[in-house]
Each structure stands twice: as structure tokens, then as C-alpha cells.
Design a protein that fits this description.
Chain lengths: 79, 714
């Protein structure tokens, strides 16, 4: 099971994943929680910006763009 | 309660937010909600005011207030900044939270997005923890209908235990019901029974013990259950606010209260080490649960069209080209569209000038009076109006259209990586876009950037996008000078391309200078970036036109006129008061001339930029007036005449380019500088914001001029 957990930044466009842990701390962590990124939330990677970063994710019905640094602090299980 | 508002510090909060009551019986209503849900639209429809709206997150950064009357009661409506939550302590969240918590509005309206109810409920539930007097306004019902998303409002109201009203604020649908609900809640005609969020047993029992310990301290002034939870969470920002507004000393005592409470219920602190996560998870899960009960999505692919549009507008291949093409198109439409009305206005206004002159002659009025009033004040005004009004009346509605559609966040999305490489914040792209309207507004907009370092970078570089005070100068010079050389349809296309090029250059300079700042005086790494890409919304064309003409165009124009009239007087006097052989203007210009020549301009031009400090709009009029006063008297009825005037004063295409470059890159106008001082609270950063673009402009024009001369291109 464990080896299946990867950072959200590695999820390819069009694929979904389930949040398993947030490794960010402090304000960033709170921000992520505010967006509804709690354990077991399903996140879908939608598209990358023309220059490759940030990536737009669908989170609880909203589309949110996250930089790869941020997305790498969200550990997910690919679906 | 028995406490006056003064002694509780609530007066202070109301003062801080500048809430003005017409009478003590006024009913205060707060408007809270997620960003971009239509709070300002609701606010505008109810109060008849014109707060800035648009389809992107974080437009409202300051609170606004307005009034409306319903059933013979006066309501004061306070438009709060949009927030996703009240837990993460950004400035906007603190403003919103403190207002709801301490200013004790008689009712709080939470505006939610009907197409994204689940996420919005998160905030609703948090607010219900603080206060009972809440009305939920589910806005954007028209968008939900269009996407076939059904919201069961009755059921939602039953579950939440508060009135729920569905609205489409833009068309006014449901606003009457909203006012009724607000009336009922604020007048206690309806007793709300808000749903309670339950935490796990150990948290609950600790809450109870803390609540008992602090009840005496805070009386009924604020919700003690909520405060207890915040004490456990050791949320310093809220404790500070409590102390400030309620005159307590909880920050100091919190530790003791907490410790004793924990001992009482034999709890060790360790168990709550991830309390914040637990709190949020509980709320998010409850929101999810409620949303599943009340939302019915008929068509799971409801946002397919949005996705298709995004596939093009943010695609790897087309994203950036489309962005630049759109910009060019906007300028092209502006230039083509403004051509004819500008000529017509100029003919009309300069025709009036002739009539005025005749009048002055007929009454034998002294010629200096004619000079000051007609050739000075009136002529400057006529120039400003005829040159500025038509392009603005076209450019603003077009820009507002893109804003209302939801295109600006896509621009930020496309450009973010460049900003990241410049160690700056992605939202700087948004503040940059606001700078197109007005740099002072752009600087205020920088508040949406949380990190102080990145906010300063955005502030200092905001001036690299030309505001509407500078567009007319750019447009005028390109049409008169650069495109004037070409013929026919090509003319306008070249003009549009030139201006687009200038803007792209401005953006590149913004990035370059941001990078340099990040490596020198504002060292640091880029902070986090989470930007919402809202769904595209159908803009209301009619309203956009009316709104952008009345709010923006008239506002900017009247400011320009107010500055231009006295400036015209001063300039004319300077050009006509002679000391010895030359006028004051001549002395100033000849002093600046050697330096200006190095930059490929002349003393009059540089002088015009300096005298144009109060407002960039008057730079061109000053240049023209200086030339005319210094001998070459011509009528200014046509663009051709203007062109001849400039050429006879030694302008070449190099001069034109340098003036445009310098117009893009020089010190911000007076208003912007004062705004920067206000926002940064520092003269040092104001001064740096003055220096950075000025030095950049000098370096660039110098390099361009010397290169061109060296290569003997001219
Ligand atoms: N279709 C539709 N659009 C709406 C409605 N209400 C608001 N809008 C649009 O939604 C966008 C956002 O509205 P605003 O009033 O600026 O939102 P806000 O909540 O004040 O946003 P922030 O100040 O950023 O927090 C604007 O483009 C509005 O024109 C509505 O009922 N229907
Ligand atoms: Mg707003």
C-alpha cells in the first residue's frame, strides 16, 4: 500500500488521486486545508500552464492552480 | 450587556473600518463569503453604489459600506473582503473575522456560489460557530440553472437552521427576499437555530471546561464555545483581537486557563497536536455531507465548455500567443474606433476655441487674459478631452469585458512560471492587469499578495504597465508619428502592433526588474501560490458599457481635467513670462536639454514629464504647448498639423520611440506615489518606487539612442 503514495505533482493531467497526507507546515498547510484538501479528498489534475507550471487541479468543485512546490507537499494515492 | 460600545472597544473597530452610522438605530449588516461569489454585486444592487466587480478572486481588498432602506428601517451594509475560511489568518480573514465577531453586526449575510456549494459551506459553517444571526444567500442561481445544478434551498435551510435565499444578484432576482430575510433576522422576527459542529469527545469535554473557566470573563459578548476552541487552538491572532476589542488580557492568561482546563478533564496536550487539522476536517466533512443532501447535478459534464475554452486559452501552444493577440486586438479596436470621434471632438472643441477668441476680441479683453484662459486652460482641456475620451470609452469596456468573462486569472495562470522564475508572486500578474486601469489602483490591489517581500516587488514594478493616463500619449504618438508614415488600413494595424509591443516590453521589464530586486534589495524565494480559476461567466454587455463609462472613464477624465486646467494655466504662464531673452519654460528646457539629448529627447519633453508628475495625462499637452509658445504658431485642427508641429521641432522616429519608452518607464504619478507611501507606510520604499522605473527608463532610452546613433541608423 505504502509505496503507492506519491506527491500530487507527479499525477499526470487527466488523472485523479486521493489525498493521504499533507506535508506542508504553517500557513501553507492551513491554506491547503481551507481549500478542502483534507484526508481522502479526491483531486483531479486538469492541465498544466503553457510553461509547464503551475498545474490546475479540480478540488471539491473548484479549479485551483498550484505551483509544483506546493503540489509536491500533498501526498496522494493515484486512482 | 450594560457596556457602552466605547468601553468594549467595538467603537474602535467600527472606527477602524470607518463605519458611519446615520443614527444609532441603523441596522448593521455584514456581507461575507468566498471570493468571487458576487458579494460586491449584491452590495451594489442593494445600495446603488459601484464597488469594483469582476470575475476573479480578491477584487475587494478594503471594506466598503453603503445604505439601503427596507420597511422603514435604515440598513448599513458592509462589503467584506472575500475569504475561503476564517482560520488561516491572512489580513482579509482577520478583517472579516473581527468584524463579524466584534462589531456585532445585527445580521451577517454569507454570499455563496450556487455552482460550488460544498466549498462555500465551509465558510458558512465557520461563521455559524461565531454567530447565530446569519442569512445564507445562494447567489449565481442563473449560472447554476444554466449548468443544470439544482440546489434544494428549503432543505439547506432546514439543515443549517438559518434562512436561505436564492439570488441572481446581477439581474436582481431574489434580492427582495434577501432583504426580507435580513430584516427578520436582524429584528429577531426569526429565531435561527444554527447547526452545531460536533468534535470528538475529548475535544468537546475540553471545550466545556474552558468555556466554564472563561464565561465570567467574556460575559455574553462573544460566543464562549467558539472562543474556547480558539484558545485550545492557541490561535494568537484571535486572542490578540479579543484583548484589543474586549479589553481583556487573554493572551497572557490563555496558557493558565488552558492548563487548568486540561488538568480538570485529565487531558494531555499531546492529543490535540493536530487540533487544527481535526477542526478543519470536521467542518469540511460536514460540508461535504450537507452538499450531498442538497445538490443534484443533472449533467456531470456541466463544465465541459469551460474546459474546452481553457484548453485553448491556456494551451501550451496557443496560450501565450492568444494572450498577446487578444491584447493587440483590443488596442486595434481602440485605435480604429477612436480615430473618427477623436477628430470630430477636436474639430468641435477647437472650433469653440476660435469662437472664444472672437469673443475676447469683440470685448477688447487684454491679450494676456486671452492667453491664459483660452490658449492655456481651454486648449489644454480640449486636447485632453478630445484625445483621451474616445480611446478610454472604447478601451475600458473591452477590458472590463475580459475581466467579467474571467480571463484575467488565466493570464495569471499562463504567466505564473515567469513570475516564479523572477522569484515573484503569481498574483502579480493580476495586480499588473489592474495597473492598466490605474497604477494607484494596481498598488492597492497588491494587498492580495500575502508575502510582504513579494508585495513590495509588485508595488515597485507596477508602474511598468501603462495606466490609462499614459495610453493616450502612446496612442497619440503612434497614430501621429509611427503609423502616420504608413497608409490606409496598415496604419491602424501598425499602431496596434506598436502599442502591443510596448506593453509586452513593459511586462518583460516587470519580470526583469522583479528578478533583479529579488536578487538584491528584496532577497528571497517565491512563496506559495494558489490561484482559483473561476468558471467563465456570461458578461452583461449593456451593463459593462454603462459601468465602465460612468465609473472609470468619467472618473479618470474628470481627474485629468482637474489637473489639466490649472496645469494649462501654469504652463502657459511659464511659456509666456519672459525674463531677459527667454521664457521660464525656455530656461528650464535649455537646462535639461543636454541631458535630454543623450536620451534622444529634448529639454521640453523632459520638462513635460517632470511637470506631468501630478498626472501623466498632461504630458503631451505640455509638450505641444511648449512648442507652440516657442514661436511656431499653427492651428491644431488635424493630426497632420500635429505631426508637422513635432517634425518642425526636430522629432524623428527615434524621438517618438524614446518618448514612448520613457512614458512607459519613468516615475509614477503623484497619486500613485502617495498611494505607495500609504500602502508601504515607508518613505524609503516610496522613494525606491520612484527611482527604479526612472533609472530603468533613463538607461533604456540612453542605450537605444546611442546604439541607433552609433549604427548611423538615423
Ligand atoms: N451570472 C451571474 N453573474 C454574477 C452574479 N453575481 C455576480 N456575478 C458576476 O460574478 C463576478 C464576481 O462578482 P463580484 O461581486 O465582484 O464578487 P465578490 O464576491 O465581490 O468578489 P471578491 O471581491 O473578489 O471577493 C462578476 O463578474 C459579476 O458580474 C449572478 O447572480 N449571476
Ligand atoms: Mg468584492
Amino acid at each position: 500500500m505504502k509505496e503507492n503514495i506519491i506527491p500530487l505533482s507527479l499525477i499526470p493531467c487527466g488523472k485523479s488521486a486521493k489525498v493521504k497526507a499533507i506535508t506542508a507546515e504553517g500557513t501553507l498547510r492551513r491554506r491547503m486545508l481551507d481549500l478542502g484538501l483534507v484526508i481522502d479528498t479526491i483531486v483531479k489534475s486538469l492541465r498544466k500552464s503553457p510553461s509547464g507550471d503551475p498545474t490546475a487541479y479540480e478540488i471539491r468543485g473548484a479549479v485551483i492552480a498550484l505551483r509544483s512546490e506546493e503540489a509536491s507537499k500533498i501526498m496522494v494515492e493515484p486512482l | 450587556m450594560g457596556l457602552t460600545s466605547q468601553s468594549t472597544g467595538i467603537g474602535a473597530l467600527k472606527e477602524m473600518l470607518d463605519i458611519q452610522l446615520n443614527s444609532p438605530d441603523d441596522i448593521i449588516v455584514a456581507l461575507a463569503g468566498n471570493p468571487n461569489t458576487g458579494k460586491s454585486t449584491v452590495f451594489n444592487s442593494l445600495t446603488g453604489l459601484n464597488q469594483h466587480t469582476g470575475n476573479w478572486t480578491g477584487k475587494t481588498v478594503t471594506t466598503a459600506q453603503g445604505y439601503y432602506k427596507y420597511k422603514n428601517k435604515n440598513f448599513v451594509l458592509v462589503d467584506l473582503p472575500g475569504t475561503y475560511s476564517l482560520l488561516s489568518n491572512s489580513v482579509e480573514e482577520e478583517i472579516a473575522r473581527d468584524f463579524i465577531c466584534f462589531a456585532k453586526p445585527h445580521a451577517t449575510v454569507v454570499v455563496a456560489d450556487a455552482t460550488c456549494v460544498e466549498r462555500n459551506l465551509n465558510l458558512v459553517l465557520q461563521i455559524l460557530e461565531i454567530t447565530d444571526k446569519v442569512v445564507l444567500c445562494v447567489n449565481l442561481m442563473d449560472e447554476a440553472r444554466r449548468k443544470k445544478i439544482h440546489v434544494d434551498l428549503n432543505k439547506l435551510s432546514k439543515i443549517l437552521g438559518i434562512p436561505v435565499v436564492g439570488t441572481s444578484a446581477r439581474s436582481g432576482e431574489g434580492l427582495k427576499d434577501l432583504m426580507e430575510a435580513v430584516y427578520n433576522v436582524s429584528q429577531n422576527q426569526i429565531k435561527t437555530k444554527p447547526i452545531k459542529i460536533r468534535y470528538n469527545d475529548s475535544i468537546e469535554s475540553t471545550i466545556v471546561s474552558i468555556e466554564n473557566a472563561i464565561k465570567g470573563l467574556i460575559d455574553d459578548r462573544i460566543n464562549s464555545r467558539w472562543i474556547s476552541l480558539k484558545l485550545m487552538d492557541e490561535d494568537k491572532s484571535i486572542l490578540d483581537s479579543i484583548d484589543k476589542y474586549l479589553g481583556l488580557n487573554l493572551t497572557k492568561e490563555a496558557g493558565d486557563i488552558y492548563r487548568s482546563a486540561i488538568n480538570n478533564s485529565e487531558m494531555d496536550k499531546y492529543r490535540f497536536s493536530n487540533l487544527r487539522d481535526q477542526i478543519v476536517t470536521n467542518i469540511v466533512k460536514l460540508a461535504e455531507n450537507i452538499s450531498q443532501q442538497v445538490i443534484h447535478i443533472e449533467n456531470k459534464n456541466y463544465n465541459r465548455l469551460d474546459k474546452k475554452i481553457d484548453d485553448i486559452l491556456t494551451s501550451k501552444l496557443f496560450g501565450i500567443p492568444v494572450m498577446i493577440a487578444l491584447l493587440g486586438l483590443v488596442f486595434w479596436i481602440t485605435i480604429v474606433g477612436a480615430n473618427f470621434p477623436s477628430e470630430a471632438l477636436a474639430n468641435l472643441l477647437f472650433g469653440i476655441e476660435d469662437k472664444l477668441t472672437e469673443l475676447f476680441m469683440a470685448y477688447n479683453l487684454p491679450s494676456w487674459l486671452h492667453g491664459v484662459l483660452v490658449l492655456g486652460v481651454y486648449r489644454t482641456l480640449a486636447w485632453v478631452v478630445s484625445v483621451m475620451l474616445p480611446p478610454m470609452a472604447i478601451f475600458f469596456p473591452l477590458f472590463t469585458l475580459l475581466e467579467d468573462l474571467g480571463y484575467l486569472p488565466r493570464v495569471a495562470f499562463n504567466l505564473d512560471n515567469f513570475f516564479k522564475k523572477a522569484c515573484a508572486h503569481g498574483k502579480q500578474a493580476l495586480t499588473m492587469c489592474m495597473g492598466f486601469g490605474c497604477n494607484a489602483a494596481g498598488v492597492i490591489g497588491c494587498r492580495i499578495i500575502d508575502s510582504p517581500r513579494e508585495r513590495l516587488i509588485a508595488t515597485i514594478t507596477n508602474n511598468f504597465v501603462p495606466c490609462n493616463g499614459r495610453f493616450p500619449t502612446l496612442i497619440a504618438i503612434t497614430t501621429i508619428f509611427i503609423a502616420g508614415a504608413a497608409k490606409g488600413a496598415l496604419q491602424t494595424i501598425i499602431a496596434a502592433l506598436t502599442i502591443t509591443g510596448i506593453i509586452v516590453l513593459g511586462v518583460l521589464m516587470t519580470l526583469l526588474v522583479s528578478k533583479i530586486l529579488s536578487k538584491t534589495i528584496l532577497k528571497g524565494l517565491p512563496s506559495s501560490f494558489a490561484l482559483e480559476l473561476p468558471p467563465y461567466r456570461k458578461p452583461q454587455i449593456g451593463r459593462i458599457i454603462v459601468r465602465s463609462i460612468f465609473d472609470r472613464t468619467i472618473f479618470v477624465l474628470s481627474r485629468a481635467v482637474m489637473v489639466a486646467a490649472p496645469a494649462g494655466l501654469v504652463i502657459w504662464s511659464m511659456a509666456n513670462i519672459h525674463i531677459g531673452v527667454g521664457s521660464l519654460l525656455d530656461y528650464g528646457a535649455s537646462f535639461l536639454n543636454p541631458f535630454a539629448r543623450l536620451l534622444g529627447m529634448d529639454g521640453y519633453i523632459l520638462m513635460a514629464f517632470i511637470l506631468g508628475l501630478p498626472a501623466n495625462e498632461i504630458v503631451m499637452p505640455i509638450i505641444i504647448m511648449s512648442y507652440m509658445a516657442s514661436g511656431v504658431m499653427i492651428e491644431l485642427e488635424s493630426i497632420e498639423a500635429l505631426r508637422n508641429l513635432l517634425i518642425s521641432n526636430g522629432w524623428t522616429w527615434l524621438t517618438a520611440i524614446n518618448v514612448m519608452l520613457f512614458s512607459l518607464m519613468h516615475f509614477p504619478c503623484g497619486t500613485t506615489l502617495l498611494t505607495i507611501r500609504k500602502e508601504t507606510k515607508s518613505w524609503k520604499w516610496t522613494f525606491i518606487s520612484f527611482l527604479v522605473p526612472t533609472i530603468t527608463g533613463i538607461v533604456i532610452t540612453f542605450t537605444v539612442t546611442q546604439t541607433v546613433r552609433l549604427l548611423r541608423l538615423i
